[in-house]
Each structure stands twice: as C-alpha cells, then as structure tokens.
Amino acid sequence: MDTSYPREDYLPMTSHKRDPSPTVITVGSSVVPRDHLIWSIFNTIYMNFCCLGFVALAFSVKARDQKVAGDVEAARHFSSKARCYNILATVGSLLLPLLLTALIITGVIHLSKLAQESIDFFSYQLSMSDDDDK
C-alpha cells in the first residue's frame, strides 16, 4: 500500500477560474406523468363498468408508450384520459350496486306498505259484509 504524498493520480487544479457556461432555465415541469397502469388493470379485471376499465387500460398503455418514446406532453395527455376513465369506472362500479340496493330496499318497503293497506282494506270490507248479513 502506497501512502506517499503527492499521489500520481491526483492532479491539483491549476486555475480557480470558472468557465462561463450558459444558464439553462426549464419552464415546464420535468416530472414524468404517471400512466395509472395498475389502476387500469384492476378496473379492467374487477370493475369493468361499461368497458370503461378497458378504455382506461388502452390509454394507460398509450401513456406508457409515449413516456418511453420521450414525448412527455402526449404521455401527459393520455395519462389524464386514463385517469378520467379510471375514475369513471371506479365510481360507476361502486355507485351502481349501491343505487340498485337502495332501489330494491325502497321497493320492498313500498310493496310491504301496499300489501298491508290491501289487507286492511279487504279486512274492513269483509267485516262490513259480515255486519250486513246479521
């Protein structure tokens, strides 16, 4: 082990001047957009309300392709569409069963009240006809 100084691979700086380099300012965001691929696959398999999960999957794949190709704006556009379709598929898949359940419950309640009123009406009519016979 060589511990002698100065080492051969060390070259001291000869000048403390900086080279003038142009200043680069990035205006747009350099954040790569998300492609929402996992969410789209989940919606396609489990929550494919009106095929919106499949449409979201198609836009997610397009967003990923554009991201790999380096076209950030197109990737952002397709990512936004995939996100919107994923939201629609998720909301539709969650709200539709809830809406149907609420309609079935209110329908059963209404039918039970209607049946009770019918029973009350016919029992009243029968009780009146029994009084007329006497």
UniProtKB/TrEMBL annotation:
Protein location? Membrane
| Keywords assigned | Membrane, Transmembrane, Transmembrane helix
- Location (main, coarse): membrane
Has the keyword Membrane been applied to this entry? yes
Q: What is the lineage of its organism?
A: Eukaryota, Metazoa, Chordata, Craniata, Vertebrata
Q: Say which domain of life the source belongs to.
A: Eukaryota
Q: What PANTHER family does UniProt report for this protein, alphabetically?
A: INTERFERON INDUCIBLE TRANSMEMBRANE PROTEIN (PTHR13999), INTERFERON-INDUCED TRANSMEMBRANE PROTEIN 5 (PTHR13999:SF10)
The record's InterPro entries line, in alphabetical order, gives:
CD225/Dispanin_fam, IFITM_antiviral_protein
Q: What is this protein called?
A: IFM5 protein
An annotated GO BP? bone mineralization
Q: Which family does it belong to?
A: Belongs to the CD225/Dispanin family.
The UniProt transmembrane annotation reads: 37-59, 85-111
